[in-house]
Amino acid sequence: MMLRITLFGALRDADARGFIELDVPDHSTIAQVREAVQRYVREHALTISPNLIQRSAFASDEEVLHNHRQIPENGMLAILPPVSGG
Amino acid sequence: MMLRITLFGALRDADARGFIELDVPDHSTIAQVREAVQRYVREHALTISPNLIQRSAFASDEEVLHNHRQIPENGMLAILPPVSGG
Amino acid sequence: MTDIHTAVVDIAHAPLDVAGALDFVSDPRFGGVATFIGRVRQHNLGRVVTGVSYDLFEPLALRTFQAIGERARQEVGGPMKLYIAHAKGHLRIGDLAVVIAAATPHRDEAFRTCRLAIEAVKHEAPIWKQEHYVDGDSAWSEGCSLCEEHRDAELAAAKQGGNKHGHGH
Amino acid sequence: MTDIHTAVVDIAHAPLDVAGALDFVSDPRFGGVATFIGRVRQHNLGRVVTGVSYDLFEPLALRTFQAIGERARQEVGGPMKLYIAHAKGHLRIGDLAVVIAAATPHRDEAFRTCRLAIEAVKHEAPIWKQEHYVDGDSAWSEGCSLCEEHRDAELAAAKQGGNKHGHGH
């Protein structure tokens, strides 16, 4: 299925549109999505360090989704680099 | 010498003018003034508990004066019951 | 020094000024501002309060606030600004009794400075609170002794009691 | 519940509203109000800052603020009001980035609630700060990972380091 992953913070550099789209198997886990994102940035966004992807979380609008969780049915995810609010 | 002792808080009940005057020996210590105040309230302000005088501090405009200190030369003191600001 | 502002405000003339406190501590060096505002509550120890009166020994109160500020400056050991103002006179429910604002480069020092200041104001400044109750009665609040011997005993007792004073403030 | 107010404020439209925060938490039951205000500082890690931009994942940020408020309510275990607002967009030096106000009957819970809230906002909310420097350069601040495994490791390291995060906020 097509996943749309919204970008925030330093990860906005990965695509000026503010999101990336990835084709992943249905029912992928977040851990699998993370690997797909790693491959994507290796090919398309070399300025993004793999370590930053490793330290980023994934989330729906409602909650952070940890590695064992499956992707949401609506195919919408956000990738959240380490946070620095306040 | 004549001491004028300004009253605050619950001790204002000791005299509606807001102060009491006591004749004490020159160079009295605060401990001696405290005893003189105890005698005064026993005679003139029975609603004031001796325990409240015991827990009160004495001060000049500049600082709290502990028991061993001498009375200020200008004869002006304040008696400070336990504080409850904020 | 212009990094410490102290005031006693007769609230017959003007209320305490939170915006003024924030202005005073505002500084491009400072990212953290912690404030504490003490307000008159409607209940205390189970009684309905209609208002309170604050009595202050004003010259010594101002010196005490200044000394608290200097102690805070020592504690922080770097740049800071601190504002301490206390009301005097008759206050109604919701009126501001005390305003503290502390600003420092980072938030931890700001919180610590603000807390240090309000604790010291409560325990050391010559200020007395009289509560007025709905039944027409009134009472001076129990407080902290400024006598060294009583004070040490009270603080030790407070520590044993899990940092709560017996007299409830 | 009307005891928790959360907001993300686009500062192109309006600045954060400290007076509004104080109004929200104001209540005749509460004698203690603690606030924290985070402002943009002119220097960070030795560089001259001209402004910052905040990027937020807004729906999740608001849910996170609300969850923080509910956690605070649990911690207090009694009446409280809590206001959490964070700016988004481009801020200049001195602009307000975050405003927290917590009110409770007594001051200790107010301070604890305010501190809990700002720490949680900084460490848990999906918010990112980009600093702009006087030389025209800019950089996203290092932050706290929201990944469980990284987060646990970072928090443990922070505790060892005397409660200071390696990334300096």
From TrEMBL, chains A, B:
InterPro entries: Beta-grasp_dom_sf, Mopterin_synth/thiamin_S_b, ThiS/MoaD-like. Coiled coil: none annotated. It comes from the Bacteria. Pfam families: ThiS. This is MoaD/ThiS family protein. The lineage of its organism: Bacteria, Pseudomonadati, Pseudomonadota, Gammaproteobacteria, Lysobacterales.
Automatic annotation (TrEMBL), chains C, D:
Its EC number is 2.8.1.12. It is an enzyme of class 2 (transferase). Keywords: Molybdenum cofactor biosynthesis. It catalyses: 2 [molybdopterin-synthase sulfur-carrier protein]-C-terminal-Gly-aminoethanethioate + cyclic pyranopterin phosphate + H2O = molybdopterin + 2 [molybdopterin-synthase sulfur-carrier protein]-C-terminal Gly-Gly + 2 H(+). It comes from the Bacteria. Pathway: Cofactor biosynthesis; molybdopterin biosynthesis. SUPFAM superfamilies: Molybdopterin synthase subunit MoaE. Belongs to the MoaE family. PANTHER family: MOLYBDOPTERIN SYNTHASE RELATED. Heterotetramer of 2 MoaD subunits and 2 MoaE subunits. Also stable as homodimer. The enzyme changes between these two forms during catalysis. This is Molybdopterin synthase catalytic subunit. The lineage of its organism: Bacteria, Pseudomonadati, Pseudomonadota, Gammaproteobacteria, Lysobacterales.
